[in-house]
Amino acid sequence: MVNPMRAPLRFDRGHTDDLMSFLAASPSPYHAVANAAERLDKAGFRQVAETDAWDATSGGKYVLRGGAIVAWYVPEGAQASTPFRIVGGHTDSPHLHVKPIPDMGAQGWRQIAVEIYGGTLLNTWLDRDLGIAGRLTLRDGTHRLVNIDRALLRVPQLAVHLDRSVNTDGLKLDKQRHMQPIWGQGDVHEGDLIRFLEEEEGLTHGQVTGWDLMAHSIDPPAYLGRDRELVAGPRMDNLISVHAGVAALAAVSTAEEALPYIPVLAAFDHEENGSQSDTGADGPLLGNVLERSVFARGGSFDDRSRAFAGTICLSSDTGHAVHPNYAERHDPTHQPRANGGPILKVNVNMRYATDGSGQAVFAAACEKAGVPWQVFVSNNSMPCGTTIGPITAARHGIRTVDIGVAILSMHSARELCGADDPYLLANAMTAFLEG
What we know:
Blueprint: H1 13-24, H2 29-42, E1 46-47, E2 59-65, E3 68-74, E4 84-90, E5 95-106, E6 109-117, E7 130-138, E8 143-153, H3 166-169, E9 182-185, H4 192-200, E10 208-217, E11 222-224, E12 230-233, H5 236-253, E13 262-268, H6 285-296, H7 301-309, E14 312-316, E15 319-320, E16 343-345, H8 356-369, E17 374-376, H9 388-396, E18 399-404, E19 406-408, E20 415-418, H10 421-434
Parallel strand pairs: 1-2, 4-13, 4-14, 14-18, 15-19, 16-17
Antiparallel strand pairs: 2-3, 3-13, 5-6, 6-9, 7-8, 7-10, 11-12, 12-20, 16-18, 19-20
């Protein structure tokens, strides 16, 4: 839906260029939050530790926990009962996750044992050059980010000569037998992968005692199409939203106008497997941060309740653009298109948290920003996915609206969106956070 009173914002190539850099530099949730924190540092935010006492000073602050970040900006004169305006997202994407005992092999091939994380499209990981990234835990308890961004792994598909029916009967993949990538030849020795990573990072042997590692496609994001109006790249679900949320929060923190709300960015881990972790949306992280912010400003439990009652969250996650080859899978009257602006996601069975009053909030933000917007509703005969929105609403009693960007190839190793939409999403978020 387009606001008839204002023309839509022109496409800003700089924002999408920066998104592509963010995607390439964020092969794991740990890298994503580190890159988000770096951008917030440049905007004047500062990290606070959960183990420290918090003060009532104004300004931008953020908390890091694993693959999650919660950042907020306290304007001058904010009261203990001042409500929050939250943009939420998640940092994780479906992938091949390295198992605790990584080294395996067969028939003279050296392989890496992986587990399937989230609802990934398995076939998109075949015959693709993969790197390894994630977090190493050292013997002293500190962490080290690692990113081997070169062709290290590959999951080879069976040749058509040995599977003659693959193009007629479809590809059938067993997650255990068929998805273990190769990374060389020779005998398998326990500890090979971790020794290799220690050498790559300049660490001594035995210094790494724990790891959270995942494979990632090393193909960089790229503009696509005759007029370069599309973008193809990894982990768009849901780093598009995280990147836009960081840009929006940084923008409102420098606004000259007084903010009637406390703007917040909450980017969680583990959305793709249910959000039930200490860094997921179903964990205590967001509630703890919001409550401690209220109490640090001298608030009572009543102030906390008043603040939460006036709080609104935009839960931003990707949604499905109408697919030209499978149009029958979409609702015939709700068919979001790439470069049509952000989407409002609605499901009457509360797979999304949007209701009519939430729609009005989102429409007002888009109108203020001059941003066109669309509506996504699932085909009645197709199951509807979900996201952090209903979890946030139920866990914290916060009014929540589910939005996002329409993409193709969701949960593929490489997804596709319109080049205008990330910029339009960021502008809608900025207008929402400004109130």
